[in-house]
Amino acid sequence: MRLSPDQMIFWQHGFLKLNATIVFTWGLMLVLAVGSKLITRKLSTGLNRSRWQNLLEIVVTGIEKQIEDVGLRHPEKYIGFLGTLFLFVALASLCTVIPGYEPPTGSLSTTAALALSVFVAVPLFGIEDQGLGGYLKSYVEPTVIMLPFNIISELSRTLALAVRLFGNMMSGVMIIGILLTITPFIFPIVMTVLGLLTGMVQAYIFSILAAVYIAAATRTRKPGPEPVPNN
Amino acid sequence: MDNMTLIAVASIVTAGLTIALGSIGPALGEGRAVATALSSLAQQPDAATTITRTLFVGLAMIESIAIYCFVVSMILIFANPFWNHVIAQATTK
Fold it and tell me: Is the Cα dihedral A141, A144, A145, A151 positive or negative?
């Protein structure tokens, strides 16, 4: 039984392997990049716009509102990173309706790469917002004894991000595979729908958690009235 | 019982027990979380979006524990290093 799309190899030359994970990842990237390029070729600001532009506007403004609700005050700085995370994981899960497709997030390499990019992005955004000294000082808050615990919590939540997404995607694929050998008619379709739902929820969770970590790293500690979130 | 049988029995029993015991805690925790979220939604319906979003984030964190148990169980069944080692030993003999 195949545990991940890493084991489905299309082409091999020495130690260079072209496996299903790489092929599907690049396919998704192509769809996202070419699709948005095509849709944003002729943008219109009036009420008369194409439905694809409408769809993109709904998605982008939705993500912006979510980022603002989490507490990040200038969502346009972060929407590039967080929006891409959400769109990649969501599209990876949505394309399971295509037969022969395996979500690349079902491989620990992809989810580890995404979690590592969050791990690198959080200090970068924190330093950009608070300066190097201010960000490093946040590790010794509230006392110096908390320094190892803060570092361990950074590492463990990165690991948790990777394993959570990998476990959810892999379990969906595996359940469908097992059910196909037992009751191959209607029930696997129901489980595929459940897999779609959990895929969307996990995409949302991944990006919201990344946003919460960035918000925790860029929180300014100036005393004053807290801005009231409008919801 | 020789080595191979022992490893096989231990892996199978542990895999089953891991996922069985490991899903009790998260299921109970998620039930409590949703119950509390529903009661606070009934008390303050206009905070629905915040409550729902926080509920989903909380559920994902609780679910992660069950996912860790599932991953360990899958490793024991499909990518078991001890079993692979023993099989390699048996085939080269």
Answer: positive
CA distance A13 to A21: 17
The CATH number covering residue B12 comes to 1.20.20.10
pLDDT digits (tens, 9 = 90+) for A19-30: 888 999 999 999
The more confident residue out of B3 and B13 is B13
Cα B34 to Cα A139: distance, rounded to the nearest angstrom: 33
Q: What is the 3-state secondary structure (H, E, C) of A180-215?
A: HHHCCCCHHHHHHHHHHHHHHHHHHHHHHHHHHHHH
Query: For residues A62 and A67, what is the distance between their CA atoms, to the nearest angstrom?
Result: 9
Q: Would you list which residues of chain B are within 8 Å, Cβ to Cβ, of chain A?
A: 47, 49-50, 53, 56-57, 60, 63-64, 67-68, 70-71, 74, 78-79
- Is the overall model pTM greater than 0.90, yes or no? no
Q: A166, B71: Cβ pair inside 8 Å?
A: yes
CA nearest to A211, candidates A22, A81, A26, A40? A81
Angle of CA points B55, A229, B47, to nearest 5°: 40
Q: How far apart are CA A145 and CA A150, in angstroms?
A: 10
Which residues contact residue B9 at a Cβ distance below 8 angstroms, ignoring those fewer than 6 apart? B1
* Cross-chain Cβ contact B56/A201 below 8 Å: yes
Cβ pair A163:B67 closer than 8 A: yes
The Cα angle at residue A139 between residues A133 and A143, in degrees rounded to 5: 110
SS3 of residue A19 by DSSP: strand
Domain membership of residue B67 as a residue range: 3-92
Whether residue B67 and residue A208 make contact (CB cut-off 8 A), yes or no, is: no
Contact A96, A195 (CB under 8 A): yes
User: Cα(A72)–Cα(A75) distance, rounded to whole angstroms?
Assistant: 6
Q: For chain B, what is the domain count?
A: 1
Structure tokens belonging to residue A125? 């955004």
| pLDDT mean across residues, chain A | 86
